[in-house]
Amino acid sequence: MQDFCHFQKVVIKVGSALIAPEGRGSSVRYLLSLADFVHHCLQQGKDVVIVSSGSVAAGSGLTNHHLAQKLSIPQKQALASIGQTHLMQHWQKLFDNHCAQILLTRSDLESLQRRANAKNTINTLLSMQAIPIINENDSVVVDELVVGDNDNLAAQVAEMCNADLLIICSDVEGLFDKNPKTHDKAQLIPLVEKIEDSHFAIAGATDNPIATGGMQTKLQAAKFASDAGIDTLIVNGRNVETFERLKRNQTTGTWFKSQINKESHNG
Ligand SMILES: Nc1ncnc2c1ncn2[C@@H]1O[C@H](COP(=O)(O)OP(=O)(O)O)[C@@H](O)[C@H]1O
Ligand SMILES: N[C@@H](CCC(=O)OP(=O)(O)O)C(=O)O
User: Where are the domains of the chain?
Assistant: First the structure.
């Protein structure tokens, strides 16, 4: 087991599957134990940054648009715009208003100046004990300029702010040898020392119309993070026991080891 105590700066990615367990709308049902875990991390002196999906799902719950229907990109962008404020209301309640919204685009991450600005703002927020809540700025990005999924966005944010751990919270326990939603006998892979093509071969897509990328984008994110010296943990955020185990420093989910041996973990 990797020692959770040693990690200082943690980026936690929260997928749409957790925000919208009913397939649309938004709910704090699975965010309560996650928020409790974040409070625990803060008490231990760790820095926490959240990358939260769910704006499109939240927007669809507030309008008559179902994501199972084929929606145009402008319609999805409008839903994201409607849903994002609602999503932030949940986070504000969970963190007693000690949180702040940052919406990023791929060009923000690619521009040296804007990337430095975003990094400075995140660090300043952390020094003010405010939790940065990041999402892609879906309403303004066009096709060629999207990061496209929040797994990869979270990995890029983790690298940008020198995090040492990325936790991806989804609706499955971690990476399995087959998609556990379609294979009863799928086996969890608890530890990946190095991500190989064989891991990408077993990581499938998602059949959830509100989610993006499935296990494929989570593996891309873990690979990006791992190459940048950041460990990644994919866990089931719907399982209360996940966060209890992490608090007790016990194994959970799938752990992807960083490929760079960092002397210290304080970014
Ligand atoms: N090998 C695999 N192991 C685990 N999950 C997998 C695998 N292949 C595909 N998946 C799918 O990936 C889904 C998680 O991704 P996704 O639906 O995009 O969730 P999120 O909203 O959390 O990003 C799982 O529900 C599962 O159906
Ligand atoms: N930016 C989008 C989330 C896109 C996304 O990657 O969703 P997910 O695969 O559920 O993490 C939104 O807020 O709806």
Answer: 4-256
> What's the pLDDT tens digit per position in 241-264?
999 999 999 989 999 999 987 654
Residue owning the nearest CA to atom 9 of ligand 2: 212
Q: Is 212 annotated as a binding residue?
A: yes
- The secondary element (H helix, E strand) that includes residue 243 is helix 240-247
Please work out whether the CB of residue 253 comes within 6 Å of at least one atom of ligand 1: no
Nearest CA to ligand 1 atom 8: 204
ipTM surpasses 0.95: yes
pTM for this prediction: 0.96
For the chain, counts of helices (H) and of strands (E): 10, 8
CATH superfamily label, 4-256: Acetylglutamate kinase-like (3.40.1160.10)
Q: Are 135 and 103 in contact (CB under 8 A)?
A: yes
- pLDDT tens per residue, range 128-143: 999 999 999 999 986 7
**Atom of ligand 1 lying closest to residue 182 CA:** 27
